[in-house]
Amino acid sequence: MTAAETGRCLLVDGSPAEIAVLAPLVGMELVDAGALPECLIGPVDLVVLGSGVDAATATAQRVHRLHPEAEIAVLTDRPAELRRQVSFSPGVPLGLLVAEAGEPDLLERLQVLRAAAVGRRRHAAVLAAVMARSAVERDQGPAVLVSGGALQSPATAWNLLTLAIDAAGIGTFDWDLVTGTLSWDDRLNELFGYDAVTFDGSIEAFNARLHPDDVDRVGALLDRAIETAGEYAAEYRVVLPDGEQRWVAARGRALAGEAGTAVRLLGAAWDISVRRHAQDRLAHLVESMAVGFVAMDPGWVMTHVNAEAERITGMSRARLLGRTLWETFPATVGSEFESNFRRAAETGQPVVFEAFYPRPLDVWVEVRAVPSADGVALYFLDITARRRAQELTARAAGRERLLSRITAELSATLDADEAARRLTRLVVPGLADWGIVTLVHDEEAGGDRRALRTAASWHHDPRLREAVEAYAQARPGALREDSLVVRAIRTGQLQVLTRDAAAQVREKLQPGPAQDLVVDLAPESIAVLPLTGRNGPVGVLTLCTGLDRGPLLPEDLVTARHVAARAGVVLDNARLYRQQRGLAEGFQRSLLTPPPEPDHVQIVVRYVPAGEAAEVGGDWYDAFVQPTGATVLVIGDVVGHDVQAAAAMGQVRTIVRTLAARGSEGPAAVLGQVEQVMQTLQSQILATAVVARLERTDEEQAAGVARLRWSNAGHPPPMAITPDGCVQVLDGGRPDLLLGVRPDAPRHESEVTLPWGSVVLLYTDGLVERRDTDLDAGLARLQSTLSEHAGRDLDQLCDVVLARMLPADPGDDVALIALQLHPQDRPRPPHAGPNRLPPDVPPDVPADVPAG
Hints:
Blueprint: E1 8-12, H1 16-22, E2 28-31, H2 36-39, E3 44-49, H3 56-66, E4 71-75, H4 79-87, E5 97-99, H5 106-140, E6 144-145, E7 151-152, H6 155-167, E8 170-176, E9 182-184, H7 186-192, H8 203-209, H9 212-228, E10 231-239, E11 245-256, E12 262-271, H10 273-288, E13 292-296, E14 302-305, H11 307-313, H12 317-320, H13 325-328, H14 336-347, E15 351-357, E16 363-372, E17 375-382, H15 384-411, H16 416-427, E18 434-440, E19 452-459, H17 465-478, H18 484-491, E20 495-497, H19 501-507, H20 513-521, E21 525-533, E22 536-545, H21 554-590, E23 601-608, E24 619-625, E25 631-638, H22 643-661, H23 667-680, E26 687-695, H24 698-703, E27 705-713, E28 719-721, E29 727-729, E30 750-755, E31 759-763, H25 775-788, H26 794-805, E32 814-821
Helix pairs in contact: 5-6, 15-16, 15-21, 16-21, 17-20, 19-20, 22-23, 25-26
């Protein structure tokens, strides 16, 4: 290959190392990427894109568009990655070479590429000469045959011969349609395995070397060219005498005589085995790909389909080829398939997406739509198994999340009805279309349908929730002994109806509203799961699905079993909580007695147990009248929150009550005596307490006032509300030590004069203490609440204080005692209750007891 025969070679943005490697290439020029359009003028055999080129794929596309005859190579440090990229990129030449600069055979491969470009230019020159010969010889007369198959013709024949020789591989033929003589040159004899002796100059000799599968097709192309006196172009296989096959491309033209019919057919032929073998390998690769492939022309007509595409679509090539995509796959019309395919065609950019094609294919595919000048090519993978696995994984993860939510949300409440309400909202629509939670009464035996009560129901459709609630309430009274609910409770086993559940359930219900409602709700499948506690079912969970959703799946039932197991434990805990709380509260209240009701003094008491079932506290209140007629109020709190604390509270309360009620001692003296008794009994009890006594003299009664004396043993201070709404904290200075710390600890008293209409409030620390705030903040809140609601009825005031100060689930028990002084110059108010006094205390006797 001489310099005159070669075109230019361009190296674009090459590195120094790449320039050194490519130096042996004849006519190599160094070019900047920005100057490419100006450089791609004239003969260019090879364009090498160096590693300095940005966006190598886009640049290769641009070069191929500007100069399609040039071969292109790309040098990169990541050849495998770039090969994957260009394999799905439109507008990239099929023979694009991607390599590293350091590959040992790089220069040789580049020279082969360049030679291919030179060969194509030669072929084009020969074909042009052949076509020119046919035009010239119409004017100069026909050529004549000479021995050896050579042609004797006018001057143009010599030029044609020269071109054929220079083409080094392209032969020419001349078929005289009048005589039937076919003239070949030596190159064609070589291509077809003949020589000057064995080739007899007939069309039969030509056909004898054609592959049997190509004879009819090539014959038809020749006949068409002869009939129309037009162009002839064909590619066919030649079978040599030794069995070797080669591919040949031929192109020519039929020449018409004076009568207008064809009399000669001139042309050229050349060996394209290398290209066709490469194409065959590519076709085999496409055919054997585990990726479906469909090529479409600009009119969306399918022109090529591989085996995997046949498998995925379930259609043969005969049904696919030659038809448009839209008529063959009507579900693509108006879907994301169509929108993505058209977007690829309109933008010229590949589009990748995942989509589901419905029946009859019923398949998930991952599609890459690659546009080109020839239309759109589709590469698609059947990802149905992957998507189903993902869906199963997602459903499993969803079930785990559901179970976690159920555990968290149900465990956050110890109220059975609230837990049931939350459960129905969690399982619908996650597991079913609607559901019912039915509980067993605590005091009833399991298995008795009369012990059942509906706790909650829910439907995913708001329009049907009222019907589900009506059915849920009517169902317990309509159950027969063979019903699913009764069987689930008695056996402790899951009960399932997978099909036509409405009709089957109706048969197991007593006539009435429940029968009609279950028909209206039309469950297709039903599962009834026992909610099992420590000693058997504590209820049942009913899950129902409609016809649209279909039956409950096995994996749904597995999840439902886990849900029922966790819910059963939670509901059983709620049952135990109710029982323990009832016992604890009953025990606590049994230690507290109703207050007295002395004339014109109203006393109100409240006790609120802690939120935890077994958190029996040591809080207590007490109120009684001393023999002198003085009213005594006591509030106290034993350290601890258990049954022992409650028992200790009973001891301390009894000691205080006994010592204070037997005589006329003041509050400080009473607490001092309590310390002595506790020391004598070797008690280890620690407690806080306030003892307060209401006193009045005749003068004070006439003045409409009374005195309150109190002693505080480490307890939160009492508060007083005067008739004008002012709230006073009765701290009396620093509180004394708790009871049980030091028997000889000094006890002090404080006193305050209160006008008629005043209110005194004593309380335990659970009312004002929180884990997240300090005591001072709680006292301030209480003072503000009392100020805001001063003037209310005493019962109302106590209720408001508890509602405003306590959380929904108090962490500590609370005792509260409130006293209100009603005016002495008018009758006792009816809402203060009757006047009840011990028989040894005369009514309306003012107590004038000196302090301590």
